[in-house]
Amino acid sequence: MTSDRVSSLGAEEDDTALAYYDDDDLEAFSVAGLGCEDGVPGFSDSLNGDVKPRILLMGLRRSGKSSIQKVVFHKMSPNETLFLESTNKICREDVSSSSFVSFQIWDFPGQIDFFDPSFDYEMIFIGTGALIFVIDSQDDYVEALSRLHLTVTRAYKVNPDIHFEVFIHKVDGLSDDHKIEKQRDIHKRANDDLADTGLERIHLSFYLTSIYDHSIFEAFSKVVQKLIPQLPTLENLLNIFISNSGIEKAFLFDVVSKIYIATDSSPVDMQTYELCCDMIDVVIDISCIYGLENNEAGLPYDKESMAIIHLNNTTVMYLKEVTKFLAMVCFLRKESFDRKDSRHPVPDAAKQPQNIIEPPPCFTG
């Protein structure tokens, strides 16, 4: 159950800007490498011709860009990222976990100056759906804010439809008060810089992130959701779903990356999100150990997969497979879980004992 993984592109670091690229990179930035679907520019995958949104990971050196990518999409332990070498070439990764999560991530080296005349930076931004700029919160971020301003203003002129996301990263070493103070300061400085150049219409979204907790997964979820055209429909369906059942909160998760594709309109708190991620990990780990080896595509997670966890606060968590890559994770009270649905009486013939596991009543009909 793996998605297409990283293709590392580029030659070894050289004195010229083009040393960061190999032939595949240059072709990707050419006009032929760009597709257009419904009038929206996008990246045309060389293998299947599909147009996928492109997410750019940018920031200064050692800000944590590669660590984020490895932890979110490669299940690398946060402690293992301490041994990652500094990125010296552009790395492209295809994420094709499901029909809803289909995009490319481009990880840019922090020392690269893609505004160098040798680069055609317009070709970089024209097919981009989101630009994530990572700022190290534990370092002096004056230079980072300057680079952020330059990057955002140049990118906006090329493609005003880009979503600009700022990850204030490595906040695990800060107190709660210090986190809020850092976020407020960075937010004010970045927006003041835009206002000074008459570009206050550019919207920047800010997230406090760390690879040592689930904040990085939640932040990436919010970024990816902006690239999903079906998001309003999915949210509406989830709202209808919970309003006609005893469910209090519902998520649609990509089980590979633990990015939630959509949720209902009620607020998301970190503890609830962490419980969902932990439940998915448990289900996948057990499936990998005890799942059938000869099932479809060799995936232990299939259409029969489901799990129920009773928490000690009378809350029940319910996970059910939607597709081989998507899962619905729901929260409901024990009394709602146990309640029989009187609107759908069971026929007499069906009341006979059978060797089946009855699904929870709130999911029937």
Automatic annotation (TrEMBL):
<dbReference type="GO" id="GO:0005765">
    <property type="term" value="C:lysosomal membrane"/>
</dbReference>
<dbReference type="GO" id="GO:1990131">
    <property type="term" value="C:Gtr1-Gtr2 GTPase complex"/>
</dbReference>
<keyword id="KW-0539">Nucleus</keyword>
<dbReference type="InterPro" id="IPR006762">
    <property type="entry name" value="Gtr1_RagA"/>
</dbReference>
<keyword id="KW-0472">Membrane</keyword>
<keyword id="KW-0378">Hydrolase</keyword>
<dbReference type="GO" id="GO:1904263">
    <property type="term" value="P:positive regulation of TORC1 signaling"/>
</dbReference>
<dbReference type="GO" id="GO:0034198">
    <property type="term" value="P:cellular response to amino acid starvation"/>
</dbReference>
<comment type="similarity">
    <text>Belongs to the GTR/RAG GTP-binding protein family.</text>
</comment>
<dbReference type="Pfam" id="PF04670">
    <property type="entry name" value="Gtr1_RagA"/>
</dbReference>
<dbReference type="GO" id="GO:0005829">
    <property type="term" value="C:cytosol"/>
</dbReference>
<feature type="region of interest" description="Disordered">
    <location>
        <begin position="340"/>
        <end position="365"/>
    </location>
</feature>
<protein>
    <recommendedName>
        <fullName>Ras-related GTP-binding protein</fullName>
    </recommendedName>
</protein>
<dbReference type="GO" id="GO:0010507">
    <property type="term" value="P:negative regulation of autophagy"/>
</dbReference>
<keyword id="KW-0458">Lysosome</keyword>
<dbReference type="GO" id="GO:0051020">
    <property type="term" value="F:GTPase binding"/>
</dbReference>
<dbReference type="GO" id="GO:0005654">
    <property type="term" value="C:nucleoplasm"/>
</dbReference>
<keyword id="KW-0342">GTP-binding</keyword>
<dbReference type="GO" id="GO:0046982">
    <property type="term" value="F:protein heterodimerization activity"/>
</dbReference>
<comment type="function">
    <text>Guanine nucleotide-binding protein that plays a crucial role in the cellular response to amino acid availability through regulation of the mTORC1 signaling cascade.</text>
</comment>
<dbReference type="InterPro" id="IPR039400">
    <property type="entry name" value="RagC/D"/>
</dbReference>
<dbReference type="GO" id="GO:0005525">
    <property type="term" value="F:GTP binding"/>
</dbReference>
<dbReference type="GO" id="GO:0003924">
    <property type="term" value="F:GTPase activity"/>
</dbReference>
<dbReference type="InterPro" id="IPR027417">
    <property type="entry name" value="P-loop_NTPase"/>
</dbReference>
<dbReference type="GO" id="GO:0060090">
    <property type="term" value="F:molecular adaptor activity"/>
</dbReference>
<keyword id="KW-0963">Cytoplasm</keyword>
<dbReference type="GO" id="GO:0019003">
    <property type="term" value="F:GDP binding"/>
</dbReference>
<keyword id="KW-0547">Nucleotide-binding</keyword>
<dbReference type="GO" id="GO:0071230">
    <property type="term" value="P:cellular response to amino acid stimulus"/>
</dbReference>
